[in-house]
Design a protein that fits this description.
- This is Phage gp6-like head-tail connector protein.
- This protein has 5 helices and no strands.
- By secondary structure, the protein is mainly alpha-helical.
- The chain has one domain.
- The longest helix is centred in the middle third of the chain and has 19 residues.
Length: 104
């Protein structure tokens, strides 16, 4: 799946997270989602984002939650604080990705 199409899948979830019901800012929100995906992959390694990850997919669940939180921070003008406030979650996701990759 290309990064160009991935944000579309997350748009309804992101809008719900930031309590947006209008559509005139959808392109801005999709850019925030794409930015979140790029940054999270840079921080933790290669992951595939799937908004329908089931509860047994630890990496997917953690990545989805982190992505939506990143969008919320960016939407509220606090993107610069995301990394410092989510450092434990980023480290946890890094470890889960490493464990997953070791099993392969």
């Amino acid at each position: 799946m290309s990064l160009k199409n991935e944000p579309i899948q997350y748009l309804p979830m992101a809008k719900d997270r930031i309590n947006v019901t209008f559509s005139h800012r959808d392109e801005d929100i999709k850019r925030m989602i794409a930015e979140a995906m790029v940054k999270i992959r840079a921080w933790v390694g290669q992951i595939d984002f799937d908004p329908e990850s089931d509860v047994s997919d630890t990496v997917g669940i953690l990545a989805n939650e982190m992505l939506l939180d990143y969008v919320r921070y960016k939407w509220n003008g606090s993107g610069q604080y995301f990394m410092q406030e989510h450092r434990p979650a980023i480290l946890t996701l890094q470890m889960e990705v490493a464990k997953r990759d070791k099993k392969k």
